[in-house]
Amino acid sequence: MTTRHRVTFVQGEQRWELEVDDGETLLRAAHACEAPVHTLCNGIGACVQCKVRVHGDMAALSVPNHLERDRLGNIFHLTQERLACQSKVHGDVTVEALPVRLPKKKAQAAGMLRPLR
Ligand code: FES
């Protein structure tokens, strides 16, 4: 039997919640519940548009891998920021969906904000 964890996304007053299997990425969880976590690279760790801020214990997520450390630097433990596409869920966690960096209308017009396939 697979262990399940509760993931909560927040942005302002809005909340999105769901349960996921152990090891699921935050990005796939966000897209499953339609939380506003964006991607330009379809989750390969190249665009940094999927940044989230962890509220509470970072131990509920996988340890940042080499790619994530390269993209975020070594201050992620201070900023509590993680890449949703690289962060795997191993416990109940709440994360804040950070705003997309590109102008959203421009990114949408270019077809750059899209769900995972
Ligand atoms: S989705 Fe592009 S870096 Fe995470």
Primary descriptors:
117 residues, five-stranded mixed sheet, 4 helices, 5 strands, binds FE2/S2 (inorganic) cluster
The CATH architecture assignment turns out to be Roll
For the biggest sheet, the summary is: 5 strands, mixed
- Number of DSSP strand runs: 5
Number of helices: 4
The CATH fourth-level homologous superfamily: Beta-grasp domain
**Estimated helix fraction:** 10-25%
Distance between the termini: 26 Å
The CATH topology corresponds to Ubiquitin-like (UB roll)
> C-alpha Rg, in Å?
13 Å
Mean pLDDT: 90
Beta-strand content estimate: 15-25%
Q: What does the model show?
A:
The protein has 117 residues and is α+β, with helices and mostly antiparallel strands. It has a single domain (4-101), classed as Roll (Ubiquitin-like (UB roll)), CATH 3.10.20. Helix content is 21%, strand content 25%. It contains four helices and five strands; from the N terminus they run ββαβααββα. It has a five-stranded mixed β-sheet. The model has no long low-confidence stretch (mean pLDDT 90). FE2/S2 (inorganic) cluster binds at residues 27, 39-41, 43, 45-50, 83, 85.
Short description:
The protein is built from 4 helices and 5 strands; from the N terminus they run ββαβααββα.
Chain-wise SSE layout:
Layout: E1 4-11, E2 14-21, H1 26-32, E3 51-55, H2 66-72, H3 76-79, E4 81-83, E5 93-97, H4 104-109
Parallel strand pairs: 1-5
Antiparallel strand pairs: 1-2, 3-4, 3-5
The structure holds FE2/S2 (inorganic) cluster (FES).
